[in-house]
Amino acid sequence: MTRLQRMLANLFGGWFQLRRRFPSALLDELADAVSAGERSHLGEIRFALESRLPLSAALAGLDARLRAQAVFAQLRVWDTEENTGVLIYLLLSEQRIEIVADRGIAHRVAQSQWDAICLRMRDAFARARWREGSLAGIEAVHALLREHFPADDRPNPDELPDRPVLL
Q1: How does pLDDT run across 122-166, given as a tens digit for each residue?
Q2: Which of 41, 81, 93, 114 lies 20 to 30 Å from 10, alpha-carbon distance?
């Protein structure tokens, strides 16, 4: 995406699509999927949706990855006992998906695995399958967390909100 395309996308794109593509009922379903999956592992998942970047931020060079890292900090996804918070971030205007993982899980999971999840979600979204792509992404992250941080019989408090956040 060229600089001009990014500016136009963030100026005009995405803002009207967020609620249409992610209505309240779907947000509830995503929250339920996060909550149900978290009972099987010691990780915490946050799902964040953003329609577009402020034009000033896009002009300053902020890209989806940097924004996802900022949202990771803003939502305190890092603030978990096992350092196993994972953020799934969608920037609709640029059609970008980023996954940011805390250090507890990041050193155990290769970036290629996170990228594969993003690609599967992107493929579903390209076919306007917002629900299916989102649920598949959440389940794929749960699978990685179950593999590396199974709950077993250890205490497993719900440390972060499960409902997706609209930015």
Answers
A1: 999 999 999 999 999 999 999 999 999 999 888 788 899 999 999
A2: 114
Does this model's pTM top 0.85? My answer is yes
User: What is the token pair recorded at 147?
Assistant: 């593999």
**End-to-end CA, the chain:** 22
The 10 Å Cβ neighbour count of residue 125 is 19
Tally of CB atoms within 10 A around 35 = 14
Q: Which residue has the tokens 């019989």?
A: 153
pLDDT at 121 over 90: yes
Residue 37's CATH number? 3.10.310.50
The pLDDT score that the predictor gives to residue 4 is 66
Distance CA 4, CA 110 (A): 33
> Where in the sequence is the domain holding 157, given as residue range(s)?
3-166
The gap from C-alpha 29 to its chain's centroid, in whole angstroms, comes to 15
Give the C-alpha separation, 158 to 18, whole Å: 27
Which DSSP symbol is given to 95? Answer: T
Q: How many domains does the chain have?
A: 1
Closest CA to 47 of 116, 139, 126, 153: 139
**Residue 65 in contact with residue 161, Cβ under 8 Å?**
no
Cross-strand pairs, 91: 50, 96
